[in-house]
Every structure is written in structure tokens, then in C-alpha cells.
Amino acid sequence: MYANHGGWSPGGAEGVVAGRRRPQQSTMLQVEFSQLSDCGLRREHNEDYIGYVVPETPELARSRGWLFALADGVGGQDRGELASRTAIESLLEGFRQSTPGELHTAVLPRLVQTANAHVHEAGMASGGASITIATTLVACGLRFDRATVAHVGDSRCYLVRRGVAKPLTRDHTVASEQVALGLLSAREAAEVSTRHVLSRSLGNDLFVNVETSEHQIFAGDVLLLCSDGLHGALTPSEIAHIIGHSDSVNTAAQKLVEVANHQDGSDNISVQLIRVRSVERIGMYRGRPYKLR
After folding, report:
1. Its pTM surpasses 0.70
2. Strand partners for 212
3. CA-based max dimension of the chain
4. CA distance 116 to 104
5. pLDDT exceeds cutoff 60 at 23
6. Of all residues in the chain, what percent carry a pLDDT higher than 70?
7. What pLDDT score does 181 carry?
8. R_g of the chain, CA atoms, integer Å
9. Measured between alpha carbons, how far is 291 from 293 in angstroms, rounded to an integer?
10. Hey, is 127 helix, strand or coil?
11. Domain containing residue 236
12. pLDDT band, residue 228 (cuts 50/70/90)
């Protein structure tokens, strides 16, 4: 098991001088986060990989923002580990080098495509054309009062708001595609053998269809990125209950993994929890943000 947690307030939190509050010049997006990955009870290897980029200055918080990402490797032995690590490292490095001010809705799909190419190349280098390594990937970029989610595969992003966990992603599995086509009901899809068979993933081909969405966020919201080892073991209501009844994101992450192992534990379990402490409200005009008073 490995874990990281932290919080960062660009420009600092409100201070106290001579018994009086010193107001901030402006409200900025502030978050606290925790991440945890566990091998589970039946796997010998952890093929999940997680990572993040935190802006180092208030200027980068506004121009580039935060990035959180999680990947679940496919293939067994060390192939899944290579795929997930390659995807996350490519994505994080690309985000650090991205042009400040570029919209996340443009940045993330491009970086996921690049990560896909790197995973494909890593597979070719490790075993030639006969070897394919693959991974899921879900990434969440945060800036101002927006969360941009890009994903491929069945790793998910949930928005937990007012005690309700809502998925912001759609599983790219054979069963999920059959539901979209009206061939299966949601209940049937939850039980069929193809519910874990991916319809798309990183690394299989040189190009992958990346699904991207943008969402407004508010203070108090919690975003959860997770592998199927978690969402396959816990219902959305169980996820929301654990997060809502935990005194910190660290405690919530640990409890989520603990309960997932107790109720299933057949797969690797990885979570990233991001609690939004405050946001900077903005509007968009011709693709450029402007501050709302």
C-alpha cells in the first residue's frame, strides 16, 4: 500500500494580525487531497498507478491549475504496471510543460493521446508487435471553478455533493456500450461477464477515443478518482456515506480502501480524493476566462 496526502492554498490562507483578520486580496481555488493505492487481498502485484501536479505559485494556480490522474494497468505480471506507470508519467510531465492559460478541455485530451502513444511504444519496445500492454486512465484538471475530466476505460471520477456521489465518467466496457445501444438494461449489465471487458484502453492502438467533460465545482464538493477495485465493491451511496462521515480526506481514503477490501478485495484498489475548499468564480468569453464579482 502506498499513500500521499496534502493540501495547498495558493497565496496562503487568511492570517490574523493584532487580533484582526487580514482579508485575502481575492478568493482562489483551494483544495486538499489524499491518495491511496492498495494491492487488494488476492493480487500479488499492484498494476494501478496514481499521481498529481500541484501548482507551485498562485500565478500557476490560475494559469495552469491542478492535475490528478489514476491508471489501472491491464495484462498481468509486470505488463500492467509498465502501462499504468508510463501513462501517468507521460501525462504529468506533459501537463507541467503545457502552455499556461490553455484550456483544460484542449490540454487533457491531447496529453492523453500522447500518453497512449507512449504506452503503445513501451509495449512494442518490451516485446515487439506480438506484445500489447494497456491501461485505463482517468484525469481531472482543476482551475478557477471548473473540473475537466478526461478518461479512457473503466476507472471513474465521481462528484460528491450534498451527500450524493454522481459519476462524471461513463465506463468504456462492452457491457456499458451494450447499455448505450439498448441491448442490455443497467441491471443486466451489472451482472454479465462482459462488465469488466474494456471496449477501449490506452496502448492497444496509436489513436484512442478520449472522452472529455467539464463541470462547475463549488466549495465543499469532493472529487473521487478510483479504479474498478473500488467502484466494483462499493455502491455510490456507500461511497458518499463514507466520505460524508469521515473527519478528513485522509480518513475517508483509508476507510474506502478498507471497506472495499472487506466487501471484495479481488482487485487492486486506488483512490484519489480532492476536497474543494474554495473556488474563484469566472466566466468565459471567446475561450478566455474573466473574473466574476
Report:
1. yes
2. 150
3. 70
4. 18
5. no
6. 85
7. 76
8. 19
9. 6
10. helix
11. 2-291
12. very high
